[in-house]
Structure formats: C-alpha cells, structure tokens
Amino acid sequence: MATAPLTARAFLARLDEHRSDEELRKYQRYFRFEAGHQPEDDYFVGVRMGTVFALAKEFVDMPLDQVEELMDSPVHEARAGAMSIMEKKARHRRSTPGQVAALAELYLRRHDRVNNWDLVDLAAHHVLGRHLRDRPRGVLYTLARSDDPWRRRTAIVATAHFIAHDDLDDAFALSEILLGDDHELVQKAVGWMLRAAGDKDRDRLLAFLDTHAARAPRPLLRAAIEKLDPGQRAHYRGR
Question: By its UniProt entry, which Pfam families does this protein fall under (predicted)?
Fold first, then answer.
C-alpha cells in the first residue's frame, strides 16, 4: 500500500474524512460560536481532537514548511494538528536541540496563527519551554508584555517545562508580571502554573500568595489555591 504524502494538503484531506455535524455542534457550544457564525479565517469543521491527535502521530515526520502551511489553514482542527505535530516532534527522544530550536522559531514566528488557548497549550510547554530550558528566557518576558492574550498565555504556559525540572524562578516572576491581566484565560493559566510550582515548593507558593493574593483576579486565585487545605483556601479567598 502506498504511503500518504506528508503534506498539509494530505492532512486536510484526512481531516475531511472525519467531519461530523455532531462534533461541530459541540465545538460551537464549547467555544461559544453561534451556529453559522464562525469567523471566516478561523472555523471548525467538526473533527474530534482525539482523531486530530491520531492524525498528527501519523504525520509527525511532516517537513516544517508543510507544518507552517497547515498553520496557515483557516480550519481550527488543522492548526491544532500542526501544534500537535510540533509537540510530538519536540518530545521525540531522537530530536536534537537544533530541531527543537527550529520548532520554537516557527512557533514564535507564526504566533499569529496560535490564536486560541488550546493551540497555546498544545505546544508552548514542550516546544518553546523545552527549547528555552538551558537558554536565556527574555523572549518569555517580551511575550508576557504583549497586547495579545495568547502570547501572554504562551509566556506562562511555557514555564510548565521548567517547573517539571524543579526550576521555578520564571514561573513566579512571570506570574507577578501577569497578576493583573484582564483576560480570564490568561488568569487561569497563571493560576495553574502557580499551583504546579506549589507542588514543587509549597512554602514559596504561600509566600507569593501572602504578598499578592489580595490583588489577584478570582480565576487566578481559585486555580492557584486549589490544592491547599480548606483553611488556607478560605484565608486567601478572604484576602
């Protein structure tokens, strides 16, 4: 049997085989699109994310120019597929630092196409975070001060890779910068990274909350304190 070409066009054709009106309705509810009113440059076609990820595994050797072409698609599931391919490439045990650097460069250069929370979460951790683990991280502070909420979310989600390796400084520093963010999906991401950092160093999380809880937005605080004991949660909510 002939092997399918590892191209963006072939990936899109495979997506088209799995379209479902029922899945499309689910996306419209979950992402708060009114039926028939999705943006022309960013729309769902109704393919389950489990299927998208399975296709990404099949297409993991797709060349980067084709991944970028997939990122250019207006189909949301296609861009999710591109992010999943990038994540799988970055995590592959045979991936070299140079290959991960190329993935991170593509992610940053085409961040205009990483335009929703799910796309950020698919790749920021394992692509950008992995690339920056042993490198200067100034780009994250630039992203954290962006006008674009998805770039700000990228900045904090990328620190998940550092946290996993007991490196907490940037998670706390970026959380302080983003503490007053006005976008709920950035606030939640900050809270999740604080909670993860607290799993590694509970005292440091409590010290951060002692200083900053009084001005933390509610979604951020709720996520950050989720694993504290009931008395501690009540204390910080009362702040």
Answer: DNA_alkylation
At residue 224, what is the residue type? A
Judged by DSSP in three states, 75 sits in strand
At position 151, the amino acid (one-letter code) is: R
Place of tokens 């989600």: 157
| pLDDT tens string 77-128 | 999 999 999 999 999 999 999 999 999 999 999 999 999 999 999 999 999 9
Amino acid identity of 213?
A: A
Are the C-beta atoms of residues 162 and 133 closer than 8 Å to each other? yes
Let me know: does 144 contact 177? Beta carbons within 8 Å: yes
d(CA 237, CA 106): 41
Between CA 13 and CA 169 the distance in angstroms is: 44
Structural domains of the chain, ranges and CATH numbers in brackets:
1-135 (no CATH), 140-238 (1.25.10.90)
Provide the angle, in degrees to the nearest 10, between the axes of the packed helices 64-71 and 76-91.
Answer: 150
What residues pair up with 75 in beta bridges, in sequence order?
Answer: 43
Q: Which of 7, 149, 132, 117 has the alpha carbon at shortest distance from 70? A: 7
DSSP 42: S
Q: pTM higher than 0.85 for the full model? A: yes
Strand partners, 43: 75
